[in-house]
Fold:
Amino acid sequence: RLNALIRKIRPAGLAVIGIVHSHPGHFRRPSGGDLVFLQKIFANPKNASHGNFLFPIVADGQFFPYVIDTVDVDHFRSADLMIV
Structure:
């Protein structure tokens, strides 16, 4: 479903800049599986980017924002996030 949505928004000049996802319990950081998933996505030339990707996690009823380096997904940092 996500790929279908992305195909619809690209012609309008829009881009996906992040994905909010959840983790069970108190796993509040990107997991090894998350990083493998992101490596696979950004290895595809269609998704190549030289910037940051927002990857917030919802866990234990709380919101934990992270920013992923799209060139080196193992390099991520927690971030301050203000939703307006």
Observations:
- Helices lie at 2-9, 32-43.
- The first helix runs from residue 2 to 9.
